[in-house]
Amino acid sequence: MIRKTVRRALEKELEAAAKAERRLAREALRESRSDWKDKLEEKVPPKVYDTLEAAFCKAFALVFQKGTGLIEKSYDREKLQQDYAARDQAVWARRDRQALGQFRGKSRVANARDLLLTTAEGVGLGVLGVGLPDIVLFVSLLLKGVYETALRYGFDYDTPGERLLILKMMEASLSKGTRWQSLNEEVERCLAEKLPEPTQEELEGQIRQTAQAFAMDMLLLKFVQGLPLVGVLGGAGNPVYYRRVMKYVQLKYHRRYLNRRKKGIRTP
């Protein structure tokens, strides 16, 4: 009886998550480019994109290789794992959607807090006309949000397979149209099967792809952020991109947890 009750709650929550996924897909498949943005980007020197891509590549590599320990100092990993265990236990004790909804609620609260940090960081450096040095800080805050989300749903983040998944999710979150569709299918395959163990070469290749996605989409904002006086406009774009990435990532982790729990139930 308990298993059937939990299964029903999981199925209803999965239906709600699937509905949210369809909304996300409609937004991503609606390929729209602003004429004003295209015209302004044409005025950005070609070398700026190459420099920006290299900066994002360096930022991801640096944070993955040396920065994870520093990021973990900004939150209590053990407490997040304990909180997850308590919420997971509540699902079996209460057997309702409200218990499952606590996972989303906790993530939203943390997301709102980190969004304020991202805003302060981007706008603060934008006022000073600081563009490229902001990228390492921005990537660090993004990965901090992703890492905390992973822990809240009971997943690790520091194995090569998990890092590859994180990079793929971040790339997909910034994509549009058929590119989004293709990348989203890759993410779904990773979630449906056992995570692959990538080689160092494969991981570095994915870092480049993710860096390219960020550089392409944030080109104008980062160029403007490097200009004195108007740089605040570029820095103000950081929270917009933070929200966009985390919306995608949180939905994927939520569904991943629900599917894992559903697979763990055995009908008597």
Structure description:
The protein has 268 residues and is an all-alpha fold. It is built from eleven helices and no strands. It has helices spanning 2-29, 35-42, 46-72, 77-94, 97-127, 134-152, 160-173, 177-192, 200-225, 231-235, 238-263. Helix 3 (46-72) crosses helix 6. The radius of gyration is 19 Å and the shape is globular. Residues 119-131 and 224-235 have low confidence and may be disordered.
Helix/strand layout:
Layout (H helix, E strand, L loop, with lengths): L1 H28 L5 H8 L3 H27 L4 H18 L2 H31 L6 H19 L7 H14 L3 H16 L7 H26 L5 H5 L2 H26 L5
Helix pairs in contact: 1-11, 3-6, 3-9, 4-5, 5-6, 5-11, 6-11, 7-8, 7-9, 7-11
Provide a brief overview of the structure.
The chain has 268 residues and is mostly helical.
Rounded mean pLDDT score: 77
Low-confidence stretches: 119-131, 224-235
Q: Write down the overall geometry.
A: globular
Q: What is the number of helices?
A: 11
Strand content: under 5%
Give the helix/strand class.
Answer: mainly alpha
Into which percent range does the helicity of residues fall? over 70%
Q: Report the major sheet.
A: none
**Rg over alpha carbons:** 19 Å
Order of helices and strands: HHHHHHHHHHH
Number of strands: 0
Q: What is the straight-line distance between the termini?
A: 9 Å
User: Based on the structure, what is the oligomeric state of the protein chains?
Assistant: single chain
